[in-house]
Amino acid sequence: MNAAWPPPPDADVIVFGHSRIPWDTTTPRPGSGRPLRLLNPGSPHRPPPTAPPHLQATIQDGVLADVELHQLPSPATARARARAR
């Protein structure tokens, strides 16, 4: 997260990655205490967990309106579905 820290003064959300673990938290902005939303979307790929997670963010009128966590089918389930087609 070093490349995005400190955040630009008008940023309300920072999206970052590399941990492959979905993360959604709000923290006080350094200095002003104004809320700053931190999102890690997760990873649908490596390492292959049993149900790969990812976050979906919805932005409306320039404002973060919603964040949803989704679980994808496990790799074994996805392979079984593909073979059944």
Walk me through what this model shows.
The protein is elongated, with a radius of gyration of 16 Å. A three-stranded mixed sheet has the order 1-3-2, with no helix packed on it. Strands 4-5 form a two-stranded antiparallel sheet. A hairpin with a 2-residue loop joins strand 4 and strand 5 (63-71). It is built from one helix and five strands, in the order E-E-E-E-E-H. The longest helix has 10 residues, at 75-84. It has one helix at residues 75-84, and strands spanning 13-15, 23-28, 35-40, 53-60, 63-71. It has 85 residues and is mainly beta. The relative contact order is 0.18.
In percent, how much strand structure appears in the residues?
35-45%
Characterize the main sheet.
3 strands, mixed
Give the SSE string: EEEEEH
Instruction: Provide the low-confidence segments as ranges.
Output: none
Spatial strand order of the main sheet: 1-3-2
Q: Percent of residues in helical segments?
A: 10-25%
Q: Any idea what the radius of gyration is? A: 16 Å
Whole-number average pLDDT? 78
The class by helix and strand makeup works out as: mainly beta
Structure annotation, total helices: 1
Q: What best-fitting shape do the alpha-carbon axes yield?
A: elongated
Please count the beta strands (DSSP E, at least 2 residues each). Answer: 5
Assembly of the depicted chains: single chain
Quote the distance from N terminus to C terminus.
42 Å
